[in-house]
DNA sequence: AATTTATTGGAATAGGCGTTCTAATCGCTT
DNA sequence: AAGCGATTAGAACGCCTATTCCAATAAATT
């Protein structure tokens, strides 16, 4: 009976992800979103709820996709140095899609909203935990394959990988040059030696 | 002849620094600033100009103070590992002044505004260059004192110090625990070995 | 083809924003 | 002591915000 939507909620959400990613929460108005998503204002409220709900869904979608991608990369490479290098390269490429860096939506949001919204903070924390878990598992795997000296502490290394990932993303805002960023990745990975 | 100000422009600016640092540019309204600085609205416009100018001055003041502090720390310690450790500890303490982390005003602003305001971006870039220069000089000093192997590349290490500093600050938003953050500092500094 | 019902476009609403303006206040100099 | 002039308090301005509402539209079932 009812009329059908003439837009894809998933595609529209992806556009919302890109806009929030580029501009942040506060700098993005509902009018911006109406223009960017190409759908009606009422359709937006009807499909996603208000601005907060839309943002939360956008963040969740981004984090899910990013985590999946990282996981796929790490599982693909059996050499952990290579795997981590390609993972960081993926982060860098993802940040530098445009000529100026958009950094990473997760990091941007942590900086902008972690102290402002409890709900958002929890979503970010869950994503961080997932990343740390992946890193721990991957490092453990590397240790079992004798790619990591036995005296190296997994936990400390996992933490540093996450911290460095955040650093790479935020620093890329002022230094959007892939070669330089990747060079610091190479240098960082010597902590595994 | 004229009536004198009955507030200290420097003290008021410091309050503006703290508010912008805590909340960011977009989330801070002029009304918030009027309340926080404890001075009249017209006095604010008269002394600092509009919101943009006030923010720019706040950022400049913060960056100048921070750079000075870091410089003092590095000059004080003749052992570069010790100097860098204390510097990172200063960053962490500065981020964790409240129970939840405010990160670093410089990093926060890079993430929030680098793509939005050319003037702000230039101020951030100048600060970044200054930090890189300090790191290069300090590492060079360490090399001259045989605290750093000759084959180590100064430039790559300097870049990684800045990138990691940004990472430490943004990651502290979701992990405001000093011991954990400092542990990853210790691990990072093994890249000097 | 008629009916139903969610979607759609766009106006309307209430409130907050940054900024400006108008008086009234008050400190310094002469 | 007189008066000049910047500082002050707070109202006022126009714009933009997020959200809601109201017809009008259009797709799927009967």
Largest sheet of chain A: none
Q: How many helices of chain A? A: 9
Helix content of chain A: over 70%
What would you call the shape of chain A?
elongated
Strand content of chain A: under 5%
Quaternary state reads homodimer
Distance between the termini of chain A: 65 Å
Low-confidence stretches of chain A: none
Q: Output the structural class of chain A.
A: mainly alpha
Mean pLDDT of chain A: 95
Give the SSE string of chain A: HHHHHHHHH
Count the beta strands of chain A.
Answer: 0
- Identify the most extensive interface between protein chains: A-B, 48 and 48 residues
Rg of chain A is 19 Å
Q: What do these coordinates show?
A:
- Two copies of one chain form a homodimer.
- In chain A, helix 1 packs across helix 2, helix 5 (80-95) packs antiparallel against helix 9 (178-188) and helix 7 crosses helix 8 (154-171).
- Chain A has 193 residues and is an all-alpha fold.
- Chain A is built from nine helices and no strands.
- Chain A has helices at residues 9-23, 30-37, 41-48, 51-76, 80-95, 105-113, 118-144, 154-171, 178-188.
- Chain A binds a DNA duplex (30 and 30 nucleotides) through residues 1-6, 29-31, 39-43, 45-46, 50-51.
Q: Top keywords for this entry?
A:
193 residues; mainly alpha; elongated; DNA-binding
Short description:
With 193 residues, the first copy, chain A, is an all-alpha fold.
How would you summarize the topology of this molecule?
The structure is a homodimer of 193-residue chains.
Chain A: H1 9-23, H2 30-37, H3 41-48, H4 51-76, H5 80-95, H6 105-113, H7 118-144, H8 154-171, H9 178-188
Helix pairs in contact in A: 1-2, 1-4, 1-6, 4-5, 4-7, 5-9, 6-7, 7-8
Chain A binds a DNA duplex (30 and 30 nucleotides) through α3.
């Amino acid at each position: 009976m009812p009329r059908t939507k003439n837009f894809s909620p998933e595609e529209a959400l992806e556009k919302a992800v890109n806009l929030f990613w580029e501009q942040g929460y506060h700098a993005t108005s509902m009018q911006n979103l109406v223009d960017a998503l190409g759908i009606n204002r009422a359709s937006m409220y009807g499909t996603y709820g208000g601005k907060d709900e839309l943002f939360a869904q956008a963040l969740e979608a981004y984090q899910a996709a990013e985590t999946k991608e990282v996981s796929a990369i790490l599982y693909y490479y059996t050499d952990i140095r290579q795997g981590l290098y390609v993972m960081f390269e993926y982060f860098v490429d993802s940040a530098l899609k445009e000529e100026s860096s958009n950094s990473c939506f997760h990091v941007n949001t942590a900086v902008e909203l972690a102290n402002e919204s409890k709900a958002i903070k929890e979503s970010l924390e869950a994503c961080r935990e997932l990343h740390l878990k992946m890193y721990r598992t991957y490092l453990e795997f590397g240790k079992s394959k004798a790619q990591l000296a036995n005296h190296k502490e997994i936990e400390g290394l996992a933490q540093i990988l996450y911290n460095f990932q955040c650093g790479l993303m935020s620093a890329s805002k002022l230094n959007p040059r892939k070669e330089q960023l990747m060079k610091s990745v190479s240098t960082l990975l010597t902590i595994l030696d």
